[in-house]
Specification:
There is one protein chain. By secondary structure, this protein is mainly alpha-helical. It has a single domain (33-170), classed as de novo design (two linked rop proteins) (Up-down Bundle). The protein is built from 7 helices and no strands. It has helices at residues 4-65, 70-73, 85-107, 110-114, 116-151, 155-161, 174-177. The longest helix is centred in the N-terminal third of the chain and has 62 residues, at 4-65.
Protein backbone atom coordinates (compact mmCIF):
# COMPACT_ATOMS: atom_id res chain seq x y z
CA UNK A 1 0.00 0.00 0.00
CA UNK A 2 2.91 2.34 0.57
CA UNK A 3 3.91 2.14 -3.17
CA UNK A 4 0.46 3.07 -4.39
CA UNK A 5 1.04 6.88 -4.33
CA UNK A 6 4.33 6.42 -6.24
CA UNK A 7 2.61 4.31 -8.91
CA UNK A 8 -0.21 6.86 -9.28
CA UNK A 9 2.35 9.68 -9.57
CA UNK A 10 4.27 7.68 -12.21
CA UNK A 11 1.11 7.08 -14.26
CA UNK A 12 0.21 10.77 -14.06
CA UNK A 13 3.72 11.78 -15.19
CA UNK A 14 3.52 9.33 -18.11
CA UNK A 15 0.05 10.61 -19.08
CA UNK A 16 1.36 14.18 -19.07
CA UNK A 17 4.72 13.55 -20.77
CA UNK A 18 3.48 11.28 -23.57
CA UNK A 19 1.40 13.99 -25.30
CA UNK A 20 4.19 16.54 -24.77
CA UNK A 21 6.76 14.26 -26.39
CA UNK A 22 4.33 13.44 -29.22
CA UNK A 23 3.72 17.17 -29.80
CA UNK A 24 7.45 17.88 -29.97
CA UNK A 25 7.95 14.94 -32.33
CA UNK A 26 5.13 16.05 -34.65
CA UNK A 27 6.41 19.63 -34.66
CA UNK A 28 9.94 18.48 -35.48
CA UNK A 29 8.59 16.25 -38.27
CA UNK A 30 6.94 19.28 -39.88
CA UNK A 31 10.21 21.20 -39.63
CA UNK A 32 12.22 18.32 -41.15
CA UNK A 33 9.76 17.95 -44.02
CA UNK A 34 9.77 21.71 -44.67
CA UNK A 35 13.58 21.58 -44.89
CA UNK A 36 13.32 18.68 -47.36
CA UNK A 37 10.87 20.72 -49.46
CA UNK A 38 13.33 23.62 -49.49
CA UNK A 39 16.14 21.29 -50.46
CA UNK A 40 14.06 19.77 -53.25
CA UNK A 41 13.12 23.24 -54.52
CA UNK A 42 16.81 24.10 -54.56
CA UNK A 43 17.38 20.92 -56.59
CA UNK A 44 14.85 22.16 -59.14
CA UNK A 45 16.66 25.50 -59.32
CA UNK A 46 19.97 23.69 -59.85
CA UNK A 47 18.44 21.61 -62.64
CA UNK A 48 16.93 24.71 -64.27
CA UNK A 49 20.29 26.47 -64.06
CA UNK A 50 22.03 23.45 -65.59
CA UNK A 51 19.50 23.34 -68.40
CA UNK A 52 19.83 27.08 -68.95
CA UNK A 53 23.62 26.79 -69.08
CA UNK A 54 23.39 23.97 -71.62
CA UNK A 55 20.92 25.95 -73.74
CA UNK A 56 23.20 28.99 -73.56
CA UNK A 57 26.12 26.89 -74.80
CA UNK A 58 23.93 25.41 -77.50
CA UNK A 59 22.93 28.94 -78.40
CA UNK A 60 26.59 29.92 -78.83
CA UNK A 61 27.17 26.99 -81.18
CA UNK A 62 23.98 27.73 -83.10
CA UNK A 63 24.92 31.41 -83.41
CA UNK A 64 28.02 30.42 -85.34
CA UNK A 65 25.87 28.62 -87.89
CA UNK A 66 22.90 30.96 -87.91
CA UNK A 67 24.13 34.53 -87.49
CA UNK A 68 20.90 36.00 -88.87
CA UNK A 69 18.94 34.17 -86.17
CA UNK A 70 20.78 36.03 -83.38
CA UNK A 71 17.72 38.04 -82.35
CA UNK A 72 15.83 34.82 -81.65
CA UNK A 73 18.49 33.67 -79.21
CA UNK A 74 19.16 36.88 -77.28
CA UNK A 75 16.44 36.21 -74.71
CA UNK A 76 17.87 35.99 -71.23
CA UNK A 77 16.10 34.01 -68.56
CA UNK A 78 17.19 34.86 -65.05
CA UNK A 79 16.79 32.18 -62.43
CA UNK A 80 16.68 33.76 -59.01
CA UNK A 81 16.56 32.20 -55.61
CA UNK A 82 13.34 32.68 -53.75
CA UNK A 83 10.98 32.42 -56.71
CA UNK A 84 7.62 30.88 -56.04
CA UNK A 85 6.65 27.58 -57.64
CA UNK A 86 4.45 29.51 -60.08
CA UNK A 87 7.34 31.82 -61.05
CA UNK A 88 9.64 28.85 -61.58
CA UNK A 89 6.98 27.19 -63.75
CA UNK A 90 6.67 30.41 -65.78
CA UNK A 91 10.45 30.61 -66.33
CA UNK A 92 10.47 26.91 -67.19
CA UNK A 93 7.87 27.53 -69.91
CA UNK A 94 10.06 30.31 -71.33
CA UNK A 95 13.09 28.00 -71.39
CA UNK A 96 10.99 25.30 -73.11
CA UNK A 97 10.02 27.82 -75.80
CA UNK A 98 13.64 28.88 -76.24
CA UNK A 99 14.73 25.26 -76.53
CA UNK A 100 12.08 24.52 -79.16
CA UNK A 101 13.21 27.50 -81.23
CA UNK A 102 16.87 26.48 -81.02
CA UNK A 103 16.06 23.00 -82.30
CA UNK A 104 13.83 24.46 -85.02
CA UNK A 105 16.78 26.53 -86.25
CA UNK A 106 18.97 23.44 -86.14
CA UNK A 107 16.58 21.72 -88.56
CA UNK A 108 17.42 24.41 -91.13
CA UNK A 109 21.17 23.87 -90.79
CA UNK A 110 22.15 20.23 -91.43
CA UNK A 111 25.81 21.01 -90.78
CA UNK A 112 24.84 22.29 -87.32
CA UNK A 113 22.89 19.12 -86.51
CA UNK A 114 25.85 16.98 -87.50
CA UNK A 115 28.38 19.01 -85.47
CA UNK A 116 29.83 16.99 -82.60
CA UNK A 117 29.52 19.88 -80.15
CA UNK A 118 25.83 20.25 -80.99
CA UNK A 119 25.26 16.53 -80.42
CA UNK A 120 27.05 16.70 -77.06
CA UNK A 121 25.00 19.68 -76.01
CA UNK A 122 21.78 17.94 -77.02
CA UNK A 123 22.79 14.96 -74.86
CA UNK A 124 23.59 17.35 -72.02
CA UNK A 125 20.19 18.98 -72.35
CA UNK A 126 18.49 15.57 -72.24
CA UNK A 127 20.47 14.80 -69.08
CA UNK A 128 19.46 18.16 -67.59
CA UNK A 129 15.81 17.44 -68.44
CA UNK A 130 16.01 14.06 -66.67
CA UNK A 131 17.62 15.72 -63.65
CA UNK A 132 14.88 18.36 -63.64
CA UNK A 133 12.14 15.73 -63.78
CA UNK A 134 13.74 13.81 -60.90
CA UNK A 135 14.01 17.01 -58.86
CA UNK A 136 10.34 17.79 -59.50
CA UNK A 137 9.32 14.29 -58.43
CA UNK A 138 11.35 14.61 -55.22
CA UNK A 139 9.81 18.00 -54.51
CA UNK A 140 6.28 16.70 -55.08
CA UNK A 141 6.98 13.67 -52.90
CA UNK A 142 8.09 15.90 -50.03
CA UNK A 143 5.09 18.19 -50.55
CA UNK A 144 2.81 15.15 -50.42
CA UNK A 145 4.28 14.08 -47.07
CA UNK A 146 3.97 17.59 -45.64
CA UNK A 147 0.45 18.23 -46.95
CA UNK A 148 -0.72 14.83 -45.71
CA UNK A 149 0.59 15.57 -42.23
CA UNK A 150 -1.13 18.97 -42.31
CA UNK A 151 -4.47 17.30 -43.11
CA UNK A 152 -4.35 14.04 -41.16
CA UNK A 153 -5.36 13.76 -37.52
CA UNK A 154 -3.68 14.01 -35.01
CA UNK A 155 -0.78 15.87 -36.65
CA UNK A 156 -3.31 18.33 -38.09
CA UNK A 157 -3.73 19.67 -34.55
CA UNK A 158 -0.05 20.65 -34.46
CA UNK A 159 -0.25 22.07 -38.00
CA UNK A 160 -3.24 24.24 -37.13
CA UNK A 161 -1.63 25.47 -33.91
CA UNK A 162 1.50 26.47 -35.86
CA UNK A 163 -0.59 27.93 -38.72
CA UNK A 164 1.15 25.70 -41.26
CA UNK A 165 -0.07 25.98 -44.83
CA UNK A 166 0.02 23.37 -47.56
CA UNK A 167 2.69 23.72 -50.25
CA UNK A 168 1.92 23.86 -53.97
CA UNK A 169 2.80 20.96 -56.25
CA UNK A 170 4.66 21.28 -59.51
CA UNK A 171 2.17 20.47 -62.23
CA UNK A 172 2.61 19.89 -65.92
CA UNK A 173 1.64 22.65 -68.30
CA UNK A 174 -1.67 22.05 -70.09
CA UNK A 175 0.05 21.56 -73.46
CA UNK A 176 2.29 18.85 -72.01
CA UNK A 177 -0.65 16.89 -70.59
CA UNK A 178 -2.19 16.38 -74.01
CA UNK A 179 -1.66 13.26 -76.06
CA UNK A 180 1.19 13.52 -78.54
CA UNK A 181 -0.06 13.28 -82.11
CA UNK A 182 2.32 11.51 -84.43
CA UNK A 183 2.06 11.30 -88.17
CA UNK A 184 4.28 9.51 -90.65
Amino acid sequence: MEYFPIIIAGVIVILILTPVFWWISASNNFKRTAIKIGEALSGIEVALTKRYDMLTKLLDVAKGFAAHETKLFTQVIELRRGMSVDEINEKNAQIDAMSARIFAVAENYPELRSAEMFKELQAGIRDAEEHLQAARRLYNSNVTAFNTAVDVFPSSIVAKSQRLQKHDFFIAEAAKREDVKMSF
